[in-house]
Amino acid sequence: MHLTPAESEALYLSLSVAARSVLVSLPFAILLAWLLTRRQFLGRTVLDAFVHLPLVLPPVVVGYLLLLLFGTRGPIGGWLERAFGVELIFTRNGAALATAVMSFPLMVRAMRISLESIDRGLEDAAKTLGAGAIDRFLSITLPLMLPGVLAGAITAFSAALGEFGAVITFVSNIPGETRTLPLALYSALQTPGGDSAAARLAIISCVLGFGGILLAEWFARRVRRLLGR
Amino acid sequence: MMLSIIARKRRGAFELDASFELPTPGVVALFGRSGCGKSTLVNIIAGLLRPDFGRVALEGTVLLDTARQIDVPPEHRRIGYVFQEARLFPHLGVAANLRYAQRRAAAPSFVSLDRVVELLDLAPLMNRRTHQLSGGERQRVAIGRALLTQPALLLLDEPLASLDASRREEVLPYLETLRDQLAIPMVYVSHNFDEALRLATHLVLMESGKTTAQGDIGEMSLNPGVRAIIGADAVGAIVEGTVLGADASGLTRVRVGHGELKINTDMLAVGAKLRMQLLARDLIIAAEAPRRLSVRNSLPGIIKTVTDDADNSDLVGIDIGGAIITARVTKAATRDLGLVPGLNVWALVKAVSLRSHSFQTRP
User: CATH number of the domain that A12 lies in?
Assistant: First the structure.
């Protein structure tokens, strides 16, 4: 099966948006997962709920809130444009932001599970071996939670490939800029006689998703073997 | 003072109220039943747990003083810690686990990686992953890792408790080697009295959160609290002896106090120090010089104490010249032989438990 230029454009865009979204959210997700599992502080429950909000809100609502905050006249969007010349609305970076927000809870969740499974005694052992807090996190905690980081990244990447509602609401459906696979599929369905194009896009999505799952499984096995479990 | 500790901590219904001192570089055994607070106390020394009130000083450096708001974090305490379950880092190999400690060690260094590998026989394990190690091997690596932090004190929290008896025998000699080759003070937590006897110079007894008695291990082996835990049959004095040579029949002659014992053991160098336990139940008291007996070993001495013991018997403490040994006799025997302090007697030794070969008393 040869891809048409429009199809490969949508595929490339999907991958690019998903990759950006994962890269941007990864450090924040690690920090939040660590805060939520290891620290007791005031407002922890509220923060936890806030992180999980995109899971329960309709994606359109998330897209709308992003418009309010990150639009050119929004408090954050306006500042980003003035200070750094970064435009988010109607751009692929904006699409990446929308997918990042949507997949953030999935990422944090996967990391928390693996953080909770780490034997705290190992961190105590590192203390007695002379490792300070940052040293301990980088040399013990982070490597041991790596399976969770990978699982979180792959889950988030897969979710980002399929994000529709928040993306179309926040950055619209612009060919070559924000028209990712699901948006292209949606457009094909809206076009008279676009049935076969829609079917082809659906197959591409399936192959992509299936490949993602296999890749994740292979990664997880490698890491487990490395840790001797 | 090598090490001095005072700590109080309340945790629900459990209350820790402990204090002990280790006057010279030696090995102190923290001895008591499971759940009496030994691990809690060791965690306080390491800095992993903060007491409600306490003071920890090591070689004159105050590591913790709640009254003066001093609390040195564990990573700066220079205290090595060997945990019961080894706690090797699973994402690092054996060599990397050792280097982890070495790289973070505080100067001055007194033991090199090569020396640790040699002392603990780690060379064949260096290229292994930690999950490929047996329980005993894991503990050897954990001990090596703790040593490479160049600690001023080594804490060992029941390092052999999760090993079966034969694996325990695999690791114990290494601990004896460390004690004899590196003069590093250790706190050895155990509920196994035999281990304590083999390794320790001092013993601190802990009972339900409190340190109830402490002292030289020879004296402490006769302590009633210790006796309550180990049982009457395991009570016995620890004595030190010096190898004199071999007798005609190949037995090793050992000077103990003013007397001499003949022991069936591998030939040791003349002058070597031995540590032996003479169980109270293995001693027989003769009120006059014994003749024509099957028991070959007899030590002359003077009765120092006669104390009441369980089961209608007495414990008789006998000074054999620089050391006190203890014999268990029935009350009837005490009466018939007229055993009172000051009486000259002979202690007949039915059996000698050799506790340590290479033991050296350090200055």
Answer: 1.10.3720.10
